[in-house]
## 1
Amino acid sequence: KNQVEQSPQSLIILEGKNCTLQCNYTVSPFSNLRWYKQDTGRGPVSLTIMTFSENTKSNGRYTATLDADTKQSSLHITASQLSDSASYICVVSASAPGGYNKLIFGAGTRLAVHP
Amino acid sequence: DVKVTQSSRYLVKRTGEKVFLECVQDMDHENMFWYRQDPGLGLRLIYFSYDVKMKEKGDIPEGYSVSREKKERFSLILESASTNQTSMYLCASSLFTGDYNEQFFGPGTRLTVL
């Protein structure tokens, strides 16, 4: 069964600190992995995408890593800001016949950055 | 920028009412999707459409129907709302369905069924 599990469920950090969010998946056949950021009351917005051959991708203070062998990904946030308070969702795309890939969503990690 | 809009941010309905949730995208995307999001669960796909008048069931289609009469508009219909349909509903659209299938999401509609 295709599954995406994220940890921790929630996290509180102080402004300026770094943090790392984890994503483990059992999805086959794997196509790509995205991290989305979802602010409260808003829809998710894509931060990064990684394919099988990529093992790191950065977007400003966000750095995602992918280990396709162990089926793990992480999202590292550097020098956190109050605006980083949001849910972070790991989404794995599974290749499907006809090119209609299926997205499998993790439940998300809720990050709160305190001053 | 892609813009996906949803007709209501908050909606309160009574059990048994017929409910329409509207979604419009302005980027000429072929593919549109309806999800529901509940606490502790990942987004779950209700229905999707890859062309006008085409629809496909997702993982949890029971109790829902959809309509896509125009390319830019995708409607989710709850024929007879029930309390277990209280949820956040998210619409999304994408240009591709394959490996580069980034989905762009609307702001969501928080539906409460009393």
## 2
Amino acid sequence: GEDVEQSLFLSVREGDSSVINCTYTDSSSTYLYWYKQEPGAGLQLLTYIFSNMDMKQDQRLTVLLNKKDKHLSLRIADTQTGDSAIYFCAERMWANDYKLSFGAGTTVTVRA
Amino acid sequence: KAGVTQTPRYLIKTRGQQVTLSCSPISGHRSVSWYQQTPGQGLQFLFEYFSETQRNKGNFPGRFSGRQFSNSRSEMNVSTLELGDSALYLCASSLDGTRTEAFFGQGTRLTVV
């Protein structure tokens, strides 16, 4: 995951918005993904964005992509206790790249 | 629609032994990828299979190998286990392994003692 960087921890109050940030180094990245991992579980795909898009919204989730700065963010509106988890940003560098490169993950803690 | 199924969920092995992990992808998906997750190294790509062919391989020693069957089910094998092989092994399933979403299984937790 050395090509994808994320901050390690985020603490947010229940009901507030969470913003998780990610930077990637390869400008040729085609697809960028957000995954969620709860304790003892696998990875759950939350959403993904294609590199020709700036924004994608899906219910409480909003993904913003700034290609110029190679910056990706995930905003979770009205954060709930069930949103406490590790969130991973991942990139697929080109269309025929058969692997995902992951960041180290951001641990989100939701406090009452 | 059934998700990605990995078996077994938990495994304890002794150093020097070998182990085989199994992954059944989502029906209709032909690409299966394997990842190793450890606290120190995070998520690392092992290899990817499509139509029984390995198309990409990560930087792991030859002790790590895999294969895919005609029904798209995949197995990975680790021989001569080392303590450092203790990890969560995750399998990802996708239609073709490129532009589409990748869905992960629950993983197999391997502990080497």
